[in-house]
Amino acid sequence: MKRLALHWRILIGMALGVLWGIAASSLGLIEFTLDWIKPFGTIFINLLKLIAVPLVLVSLITGVSSLSDISKLSRIGSKTIGIYLMTTVVAVVMGLVLVNLTEPGKAFSPEKREEFREEFASTTTQKSTDAAAVEGQGPLQPLVDIVPANIFGSLTNNGAMLQVIFFALLFGIALITIPPDKAAPVNDFFEGVNLVILKIVDFIMQTAPYGVFALLAGLVVEFAGEDPNAALELLLVLGYYCLVVIAGLAIMIFVVYPALAVLVGKTTYKKFFEGIFPAQMLAFSTSSSAATLPVTMECAEKNLGINREITSFVLPLGATINMDGTSLYQAVAAVFIAQAYGIELDIMAQIGIVMTATLASIGAAAVPGAGTVMLVIVLQQAGIPVEGIALILAPDRILDMIRTTVNVTGDATVSMMVARTEDQLQPPKETARV
């Protein structure tokens, strides 16, 4: 009997996890779920995080060293960063247009606003403190943070991915510039390590359906508590806001990215989605671009036919700096909170939101919830009450899952565009499916 493709098994695991979470809330199995099921989801996430830094380090070194000359690296790098910034600006502007047209913030009553403010007071204070620490730094601090003082310390911290990328680029460029006979053994070593890491990724992904089941079962139980209707009631109150965010994210996934893939990548709408679907499903369930990176790379290479020379550079960089979904969410959330407080934002304030959200997305870590901290900076820049973030914390976890899917889809799209312009896009094998 033919085994189901991995992405279908992941989808089934997601559905069963949600059903289990709802049933557990109704039958009093909350503690059982949190103690005996959720830990397997945590283990799965830890496995993905375990391989993320080695994958980025080794794949970037092998990718850069295979470019043969620095001029090629410069050309690909400038294209990649330029397209990433372009798609981020498009996402932010789209979010602002939607939230200004629909005005979801005006649907909140003063009573509900006060209720959220009290319920999430401690969390809001913590987010504000974290953001103040970031905002209090000098204008060049982000540049300083990219250069590690100790690369071994950076390798032990998934949040220091930009430092790992910096070192990998420096190492790869150095390999290009030394004599070929001296560089060959080093290249062979990293090529071998890269193969080993990719095989480990294959092993980990076989556990994905079970990990996704455990993750979503735990998430639903925590969200609903002992009352399975609580989650539904909360989402109904914030439903208007959620629909606006989801509409913007859906346009990015189903219109903007496919259009770029078809027009520039010269592929078909159907083939694009078939190729990236497994990575989208994992991104949705983990809410982490970094954790999904191994699968995104495999989908891009095997299913979309993108040369590893491109994926090993573009995708790790995208997982760190390309956060289109997060940027769109920040734009909608900022104006939504302003509307809820009765604050009118003029065109200059909204242009400021575009700039701040774009820059903040570059600094946001590729892990669940990082966008919320950066949102506080966007709010402060626009003069919107920071405590208003309490209004959107309740549904944020679910929206985080969707916007991470947008981030991953955007990474793959840009990778395909760069590959096409560099003539590094090959027809994928029909039998190759992650």
From TrEMBL:
One of its GO terms (molecular function) is symporter activity. It is found in: Cell membrane. Keywords: Cell membrane, Membrane, Symport, Transmembrane, Transmembrane helix, Transport. It is a multi-pass membrane protein. Its main location: membrane. GO terms for cellular component: plasma membrane. GO terms for biological process: dicarboxylic acid transport. The keyword Chaperone does not apply. Gene3D superfamilies: Sodium:dicarboxylate symporter. The chain crosses the membrane at residues 12-34, 40-61, 81-101, 160-179, 200-225, 237-264. SUPFAM superfamilies: Proton glutamate symport protein (SSF118215). PANTHER family: PROTON/GLUTAMATE-ASPARTATE SYMPORTER, PROTON_GLUTAMATE-ASPARTATE SYMPORTER. This is Na+/H+-dicarboxylate symporter. It comes from Pontibacter ummariensis.
